[in-house]
């Protein structure tokens, strides 16, 4: 394909974005195959990576204080800034009424419109005043240089500010995210840690953990144990049809075999595979 010369900085930036996004998709596909831990673990239907809100969508009307939870797809993992992480990792940033940066080679600033979560947090409490806002999630590396891993703009309206104490909304614990109690393969399982920090096991940071998911079939077969030592916060599964109990643990990154909090559990019925 013949290259076309352009003197437009915006055109060059868009071309670079397209190239990097395509490259990231290819690397994501190769990495997912290389690190597969169990036959029930499936490749994600979409090969792109995204930082996103798990409990907030475009057009929502909310009252504040409001607890907002973050997700991360494409095999990427959370890595606090205290220690270097692997290549496809980073920490979350919440952008308030800000577009994506024009220069992805400049570190993100620290202010009320660029909120950093450098400890590996998966949530925050919004305390915005009543009004309209546009929010985005953006992943960045240890030096706060942004990755091409971000969310679409999410427009919300804060209808009023209540007297709720923000500190009461984030309670230490785990939860499992499923799009319904009945699923067809492959299906996504989202992990969430409240008031806890997620990191790579290899970082060895005290008081951080990584997720482990155990899927136990009802009445037959051995449980499937899938561990996510590189800070991943979701997985796509494709087990045989049947009923399962899912258990999510947060494993201590300093003390092998130790958990940091009580597990979360959920039940799911898996039916035949999706028909494409």
Structural class of the helices, strands and pairings? mainly beta
Q: What is the CATH topology of the largest domain?
A: Immunoglobulin-like
Uncertain regions: pLDDT < 50 for 5+ in a row?
Answer: 1-34
Largest sheet: 7 strands, mixed
Number of alpha- plus pi-helical segments: 1
Beta-strand content: 35-45%
Q: What's the N-to-C terminus distance?
A: 32 Å
Could you spell the SSE succession in H and E letters? HEEEEEEEEEEEEEEEEEEEE
Quickly name the level 1 CATH class of the largest domain. Mainly Beta
Q: Using DSSP, what is the number of strands?
A: 20
Mean pLDDT score, rounded? 88
Tell me the name of the CATH homologous superfamily of the largest domain. Answer: Immunoglobulins
* Total domain units: 3
Radius of gyration: 20 Å
Percent of residues in helices: under 10%
Q: What shape does the CA trace take?
A: globular
Give a description of the structure.
With 276 residues, the protein is mostly beta strands. The chain has 3 domains: 9-42; 51-168, Immunoglobulin-like (Sandwich), CATH 2.60.40.10; 173-271, Immunoglobulins (Immunoglobulin-like, Sandwich). 9% of the residues lie in helices and 41% in strands. The strands form 4 sheets. Strands 3, 5, 6, 7, 9, 10 and 11 form a 7-stranded mixed beta sheet that branches. β9 (131-140) and β10 form a beta hairpin. Residues 1-34 have low confidence and may be disordered.
Provide a compact summary of the structure:
The chain has 276 residues and is mainly beta. The chain has one helix at 9-34; strands at 41-42, 51-53, 61-64, 66-72, 77-78, 89-96, 114-117, 123-126, 131-140, 146-150, 154-161, 173-177, 182-184, 187-194, 197-198, 208-217, 224-228, 234-237, 242-252, 264-271. β16 (208-217) and β17 (224-228) form a beta hairpin.
